[in-house]
Amino acid sequence: MLDGPFEKLVKQISGLPGLGSRSARRIVLHLLTQPGNTMHMLAATLEEAAQSVQSCDICGNLDTSDPCRICRDPSRSEEVICVVCNVADLWAIERTGTFKGTYHVLGGVLSALDGIGPNDLSIEPLINRLKTGQTSEVILALSATVDGQSTAHVLADRISDTVPSVKVTRLAHGVPVGGELDYLDDGTISTALKSRAAV
Question: Which domain holds residue 112?
Answer without folding.
Answer: 75-170
